[in-house]
Specification:
alpha/beta; Rossmann fold; two-stranded antiparallel sheet; 31% helix; DJ-1/PfpI; Type 1 glutamine amidotransferase
Length: 180
């Protein structure tokens, strides 16, 4: 991650209450360090409470409610995990539309842990090789993805990773992919 390879890029982080803090903070720091401007997009204005596993942690300011967000204004998207976060996101039509728009525009998407639930709901995983938290294997397979148990998988515009332990590889891969 040498230099500011993402200078001039704008990256959306789509998350809500229950986002796994480390899966939000470390990727955001990585893309910002590489020069990107980042924004937290969420279901509502105000704040999002991150979690450290199942324990509430820090709250973060929302930059844009997803109902007002335009995927065309961003160069890339990151979907952090946490169990509750993607479950809430996948039930929100605006969040699903936002995610689907990135795929339709061929823009890079980074997703980790339970984050693929939102991709499944957006119907954008069919035929894709990806990884996730192990409990999502059946969900991804049923949605048409080729699930593999690897630290980080890059398939076209999609970068996926399994868990917090994989964050170093995930962060390096999203910066590299977002720089293209």
């Amino acid at each position: 991650m040498a230099g500011r390879v993402l200078e001039g890029k704008r990256v959306a982080f789509l998350a809500t209450d229950g986002v796994e803090e480390v899966e939000y903070v470390q990727p955001r720091e990585a893309v910002e360090k590489a020069g990107a401007r980042t924004e937290l997009v969420s279901l509502k204005a105000g704040k999002v409470t991150a979690f450290n596993h199942l324990d509430p942690s820090t709250s973060y300011d929302v930059d844009v409610p997803v109902a007002q967000a335009d995927a065309g204004a961003y160069d890339a998207l990151v979907l952090p995990g946490g169990v509750a976060n993607p479950d809430f996101l996948r039930t929100d039509p605006d969040a699903v539309r936002f995610v689907r728009s990135f795929q339709e525009q061929g823009k890079p998407i980074g997703v980790i842990c339970h984050g693929p639930w939102t991709l499944i709901e957006a119907d954008v995983v069919r035929g894709r090789r990806m990884t996730s938290w192990p409990s999502l294997r059946t969900d991804l397979t049923n949605a048409g993805a080729d699930w593999v148990d690897e630290e980080c998988v890059v398939d076209g515009n999609l970068v996926s990773s399994r868990k917090p332990d994989d964050l170093p590889a995930f962060c390096a891969a999203i910066v590299e992919r977002f720089a293209r």
